[in-house]
Amino acid sequence: MGTSYIYKRDASRLFIALRENGKRYKIYIPKESKPVIDGVEQDIDFVEQEDFHYTFDWNGKRFHCELVSRDQNKAIIKVNGVEYKFSLESLFSYIRHGMIDKDSSQINENNIVAPMPGKIVDIFLSEGDLVNEGEPILTLEAMKMQNEISANCNGVIRKIRVQQGQSVMKDELLVEINSIDV
Amino acid sequence: MKKRLLIANRSEIAIRIIRSAHKLGMLAVVFQSDREPDALYLNYADEIIPARDASNEKPIFLDADLIVKLALEHDIDLIHPGYGFLSENPDFAQLCVENGINFIGPSPELIRDMGLKTVAKRMAIEAGLPLVPGSEGAVNDAGAAKLFADKIGYPVILKASAGGGGRGMRIVEKPETIERNFKSASDEALAAFSNGDMFIEKYLQNPKHLEFQILGDKYGNVVHLGERECSLQRKHQKILEEAPSASVNPSMRKEMGDMAVRFAKSIGYYSAGTIEFIMDEDGSYFFMEMNTRIQVEHPVTEMVTGVDLVDWQIRIALGEELTLKQKDISINGWAIECRVNTEDPQNRFSPQTGFIDKIHFPQDPTIRIETGVQSGSVVTPYFDSMIAKIIVHDIDRKAVIAKTLKALYEFSLIGLKTTVPFCRTVLQHPEFVNATYTTRWVDSIFTPEMLENEEDEMIGALAATIMYASEYLQLSSDLPTYKNDNLNVWVLNKRLNY
């Protein structure tokens, strides 16, 4: 289930790299596949690694990366001889710093409410999980019909307000999601 | 007995000269300077003379007396001065000659003449070479300056006769400001040099730098080997050169080349030499100066002509006749040379010194690499920052640009920053691609942001993230809420496909 989705549960593998010029990359390093950068899995090959030095192949080009300096979460990386400075955040610190989903209206938009009264028969994910847009989070049974309720954005599950077996009213809050599509 | 050739130089050019010495069956002797006792070129020499110059004021390569003294002690037959250092020092050449050592280069007198700008220009005029229009001597006053400028056209440059370092120098764009500028420049010159004499010259706003390579022997035979374009300069230091130049068509090549040959013949020049021209936007060109040494950028000429210039320099010094005829020399394809300097193009080209942890050159055997360093070498502050040259040859300009760019992407150096990213930027810039670039390119067009590109930035973000993540995930694996697993097979298996 869900194997075709890009983001695989473990939100601790999602990082944000920010450049001084405001440029931002969302980088997800899955456990067993290639990196996902800004939502796209990139066919980047790891050619070589030494302590502070990586070489990648991508699009038929070679990229030599060297860590020039590192100060807490700030790093200067030399790529093919040119330096770029990034500050790095885990998804959690990024959310904590209020850089994503800061205003509550945004949170409300990403909240999932019950589209009809019914009963929660199954919950597939847990709080803290990374979820893909369109990925089922739970099953709501209404009038003998099972309805999969899916995420409306890529994000991390902040709160699950319901339990398995619980009956819910229409428009009752089911799940809160922190969107990462910002 | 084998002839003993001493190289009064270091780094890549020492290795280049050793190659020619060996080809000609000579023993190559070099100095070991205490300022870089483990230099790469030492590995290639047949014999090493310890210079013991640690406590000397200047390194061995600038110490004419010590060079000649050691050369005599070591039975040296010929000295090759390379470029820079004492290569265009007439006193050094003279000292060699006086001590019976064959100096590889032209006569000391010619080195002296060509080193004096006014003498060289006078000789060029006599040989019929065009010079930038200007007053031959000082102009008397602001009024005379204006009359002269009106005649040659604006913009003009006013220069203090005794000047230097930009003082007493003014660029004048229009007639209304010439009198005021003349007065202020003259006052400045008077204050700085106690001499307010000014001369005036036409100012070329967007010039190209072209130079013709010549070879002459001691019997009056001279040929030219076409031109090089070296317009890409920063503070008069060339960074990237090409041969031929897209701004020179075959009839111009013949005209300018014949002119260079005529000039060399008229002054009785022998050895390798370079005649520099400055070219205006309208295609008019003017003699600038003559260099009497082998030049850093000589390989681009070698690549397109197939002529070994250093071999010929040595053979000519030995009194051989130049068997090359002008009709035998043709320009085949196109060549580009990129200088690898340990300078930081993101930070005003500030010099970088320290260890080269690892250096990797493109592996294509058709790409010519001239290097003075290897992995583990040290770049010291004692010598110049050029550590290597990457020279690429292909069938035409478009092809060679693409091939050079690819070669530069294969180059990597861990430890120090270099001018390679700068060269990549140049090769992709429209003004270079369409060959309209001029000597003003670096000052008027280049910005450090041009070195960046989105692909490198994204991969940089990835690399930074992996380095950060490997720590972060290790750290968090101690926490019970996270699974205790390692980073990624993609990362861990990195050696599998290598």
In short:
The complex is a heterodimer of chains A (182) and B (498). Chain A has helices at residues 91-96, 104-110; strands at residues 9-10, 14-19, 24-28, 36-37, 40-41, 45-50, 53-58, 61-71, 74-79, 82-90, 112-113, 118-123, 129-131, 136-142, 145-150, 155-160, 167-168, 173-179.
What does this protein look like?
The complex is a heterodimer of chains A (182) and B (498). Chain A is mainly beta and 182 residues long. Chain A folds into two domains: 9-96; 104-179, RNA polymerase II/Efflux pump adaptor protein, barrel-sandwich hybrid domain (OB fold (Dihydrolipoamide Acetyltransferase, E2P)). Chain A is 7% helix and 52% strand. Chain A contains two helices and 18 strands. In chain A, a hairpin with a 7-residue loop joins strand 3 and strand 4. Chain A is elongated and about 65 Å long. Chain B folds into four domains: 4-104, Rossmann fold, CATH 3.40.50.20; 142-202, ATP-grasp fold, A domain (Dna Ligase, domain 1); 208-451, D-amino Acid Aminotransferase, Chain A, domain 1; 455-495, no CATH class. Chain B is built from 16 helices and 22 strands. In chain B, strands 13-12-9-10-11-14-21-19 form an eight-stranded antiparallel beta sheet. Chain B has a five-stranded parallel beta sheet with strand order 3-2-1-4-5. The longest helix of chain B is centred in the C-terminal third of the chain and has 23 residues, at 454-476.
